[in-house]
Amino acid sequence: MAKVFARLDESLREFIAAQAMFFVATAPSAEGRINLSPKGYRDTFAILDDRTVAYLDLFGSGAETIAHLRDNGRITVMFCSFTRQSRILRLYGTGRVVRPDDAEFGRVASCFDGEHPGVRSAVVIDVERIADACGFAVPYYELVGERPVLDDYHATVTEEKFARRIAGDNGRSIDGLPALEPDHPLPRQSS
């Protein structure tokens, strides 16, 4: 039932492109909470090459993924089909945070089709293992559409409020690991 792949071939790329969401899982090195986050907006995920992927990291209620990546880099991305084609695909790898003030950010950001307000970073993942599973017990769901709420909200947030978020709930993980620094650059607002 399960298969391991050497690279992100065309069939895997098509499967990934067809998914409306993905999930990101990380954990700290020492004792602490495992984090599992759903991610939406199809245009926030990009395949950079056969073994490298990235996603745009939008401001959220915390910064667990960033803190865990700073701690140990371990990350798993999961795509799950809710259509008649049952399949789960996991990408296991090592991730790193590319901030808007990093020289690499422009190159990575150019790999995404859309723009979103409230981008705090891009997460680039060197994929070490690619494996699928059957997904036979995953229920069927019909996609109604993408939820615009986060983009709509971020479009109203001032740069000062984003700066306060960096110093506040995005500054440390819930276990106290450092995430964003207060001098982190402000997110790039799309026009």
Automatic annotation (TrEMBL):
InterPro entries documented for this protein: Pyridox_Oxase_N (IPR011576), Split_barrel_FMN-bd (IPR012349)
Start and end residues of each Pyridoxamine 5'-phosphate oxidase N-terminal domain: 8-132
Residue spans crossing the bilayer: none
Start-end of Basic and acidic residues biased regions: 181-191
Taxonomy, superkingdom: Bacteria
Gene3D superfamilies: Electron Transport, Fmn-binding Protein, Chain A
Region entry Disordered, spans: 169-191
Pfam families: PNPOx_N
Protein name per UniProt: Pyridoxamine 5'-phosphate oxidase
Taxonomic path: Bacteria, Bacillati, Actinomycetota, Actinomycetes, Mycobacteriales
